[in-house]
Structure formats: C-alpha cells, structure tokens
Prior knowledge:
- The chain is mainly beta and 76 residues long.
- It has one domain: CATH 2.40.50.140.
- It has no helices and five strands.
- It has a five-stranded mixed barrel.
- The radius of gyration is 13 Å and the shape is globular.
Amino acid sequence: MKKFSGHVISTKMNKTATVEVVRLVAHPIYKKRMKTKKKFHAHDELGVKVGDRVVIVETRPISKTKKWKIIEVMKK
C-alpha cells in the first residue's frame, strides 16, 4: 500500500482534491538528488481546503482518474 504526503492545490471538483506530492529522487547516472513533483486526484470525504498538508493512500479505482484517497489532514 503506497502512502504519500503532499499539499492540496485544488478543491474545485465535487468530493475530489488535487494533491501535489514533492519527492527527492536520485539521478540514475550522476546520483544528484532532484525534486520531482506529481499531481494526484484524491477522493476527499474530510472536506480539506487549499493549502492543507494531507496524507494520501492508494485505493481501488473510484473513477477514471481517482485512485487515491485522503486519510489524514496533517496541518491546516
């Protein structure tokens, strides 16, 4: 079960939040650590707001683009 933490950047959809996850990844050849950003659509039952830091977890497909669920709000 995959878990990521990130910031909510959009809540314009119904019961869906867009979460941006920033990770540090090592370059395969040069081994320098780089920041990578990725956006996930997550199912939102908690009613989060833009700017909240949340934890998302992988789940069954809820719709075409939603395969993640918000399980915890770490910081409002």
